[in-house]
């Protein structure tokens, strides 16, 4: 029923465009016959509007994956670099929260682990809205920061890394089977905000999927049941992502290519010193306005990557 509803909306969209084009053609005839400047102005505005709409719909064709329309679960993990990398993780979180807000998505932090001195060791945020996963998946990979460290008394330049993972927030009817016997479940007291109720009771959940070794924690909600449901959604999404990576690696092997799926291959570098430049190494797209990008203006990078993937396929 959901698929049928989506297809119905697509048909309505194109029928609406068809009507607008026919009306515009009639307006052309009227403007030509009457030599009315006001009609020409109206026609120009309508043509511009249709071009923008068609560009948007054309770009959405790259978001044709089975779960591209779903919401997303985005996780950031600090890499090598200690406090510097943990601060970098928090900077990336702010960047993605600003990006989500600018694009009309709702965000909820479902789990986070604070750094010892500053920043975050890891954080998972739910990005809720249509096509959130389709766009956010462009950010998967290692992000590298080069800057003068505010945590270095000698003000030396440091390089730090953070890993971004993005999985679809799968609905409960998705065919990802999880055997209850394959789960190791621990409950513990939440260490985050949430009031006395959260602090005094064991509401936080840690799930370990024994066959794969995947571990998921959730402590954001006030009840153990809510945390368990959220943790299961995250686990289901990560199992889906794991299976997807296996298929991609098998396809690459059949092509005779080797894809290094491990840590160390940054997809993007954010250089703040000795010059300012952010460059995506997959597409060679780069900008010099680092402040704007770190404030959430990453749509150009996302679009460049998605169009790049079309060229590869």
Describe the 3D structure:
The chain is an alpha+beta fold and 313 residues long. It has three domains: 2-60; 72-173 and 262-312, 2-Layer Sandwich (Alpha-Beta Plaits), CATH 3.30.70.1660; 180-255, Double Stranded RNA Binding Domain, CATH 3.30.160. The chain has helices spanning 2-34, 37-60, 83-102, 132-136, 196-200, 224-255, 290-294, 299-312, and strands at residues 72-78, 106-114, 120-128, 141-148, 157-168, 183-188, 204-209, 214-218, 266-271, 277-280, 286-287. Strand 9 (266-271) and strand 10 (277-280) form a beta hairpin. Residues 193-198 and 257-262 have low confidence and may be disordered.
The gross shape turns out to be: globular
The tally of domains stands at 3
CATH architecture designation of the largest domain:
2-Layer Sandwich
- Estimated helix fraction: 40-55%
Radius of gyration: 23 Å
What's the CATH first level of the largest domain?
A: Alpha Beta
Lateral arrangement of strands in the main beta sheet: 2-3-1-5-4-9-10-11
Average pLDDT level: 85
Q: End-to-end span in angstroms?
A: 30 Å
Spans of at least 5 consecutive residues whose pLDDT stays below 50 are 193-198, 257-262
Largest β-sheet summary: 8 strands, mixed
Order of helices and strands: HHEHEEHEEEHEEHEEEHH
Task: Give a count of the beta strands, DSSP E runs of length 2 or more.
Answer: 11
Strand content: 15-25%
Q: Under CATH, the topology of the largest domain is which? A: Alpha-Beta Plaits
Total helical elements: 8
Based on secondary structure, the structural category is alpha+beta
